[in-house]
Prior knowledge:
The protein folds into two domains: 2-112 and 142-212, no CATH class; 272-374. The protein is 63% helix and 7% strand. The protein has 17 helices and six strands. A hairpin with a 2-residue loop joins strand 5 and strand 6 (369-374). Helix 1 (2-11) packs antiparallel against helix 2 and helix 9 (145-158) packs antiparallel against helix 10 (165-180). The chain starts with a helix and ends with a strand.
Amino acid sequence: MWRESGKAVNKTGNGRSTGALAAAGLAAGLCFASKQNIGIYALAALLLMVIFNTGGIPLKRKGKIVDFLIVLSGFLLVSVLVFLPVLFSGGTEKLIDYGFINKGTYIRLGGMSYLDGLNQIVVLLGNVGSLDNLKKIYLLAPFLLPFLTFGALLAAWVRPGPDKRNLTITVLLFVGAAFLGVFPRADRTHLTYVIPELLIGLTYVWYRTKPHITTRRIRLIKAGLVLWFGIGLGFMFINPLVKVSTGDYQLSTLPHFRGVLINTDKQKEINSFAKSLTEEALNERAFILSPHAGFYYLVSGLKNPTSFDYPLATAFGRNGEAEVMAAISQREIHTVFLDSQWFSPTLRPVVLERYVREHMERRRDFGGFTLYIASGD
């Protein structure tokens, strides 16, 4: 999408941007099909690009309108084609619920401030007394990357080279659109997904400014990058070797997770817990109410009697919890394994948890879970 948008910027003034704009619109539609908010951000960036970038040659108002229609046509074409199977399979209501309406629940319960990551860095910098803290600082350093990238792009826009301001705006728009994908849950995991786009923005500025930098400074910058990424790569290679050499880790034999390094005791614990799950689950009508439910279904071989492999409050939609409670009431779900260890209390489906505790019979605790069965059995 970036490539086609760049082509459109370069060709707009010569009247040859139709194909590039159409391809960029199609790409924005694919973004929308993958994740709705990302697609909307991409489309907004693309339309803003059409507004602000004119290749240095003033265009008539009619040309702008045509460009808008080309972009929107490509976007809508892909979106409609992807939507058709949903429509014909009767899933329109679910799509609207989970894809759009439920976003409000996610913003309300799943939000995480970007400042949290910055605050962690400040706290750790004030207590750099261990190798573990240095490692944490290194892993949290990407929270500083957006400041560097956007600062560099704004500087490049303020002092543009010949015919480069429009291209700089394009890069800035799409880096910004990608960065918006971090929110509302701005944690390290979500930030990791936009690091490539942030680095593309920095790379663009680098090639713009490189001719104006002295050879000595270029060498220093390259040496710093080699050192920085070398530390990370070194840790990636050395850490597994250290783990294996201690004898505490081995290659996993867990179903669907074979071949990865795993703590030996942890694997025994998981195997034991998975065995307990299968023994307690009668007729495979067992629901695992845990943020790690999908993992436990895979390692235990159980089949989820619902469509919720990730049963968080933000994933149930408007009626998901009610559907599960109805399934319990109608004995379609006989057993519930209730996790007592949630990584985020705000994501607990409290209504469903309360229903399980009040309407099912508690049997026993094991492995951080509480076993509940249908009352009267």
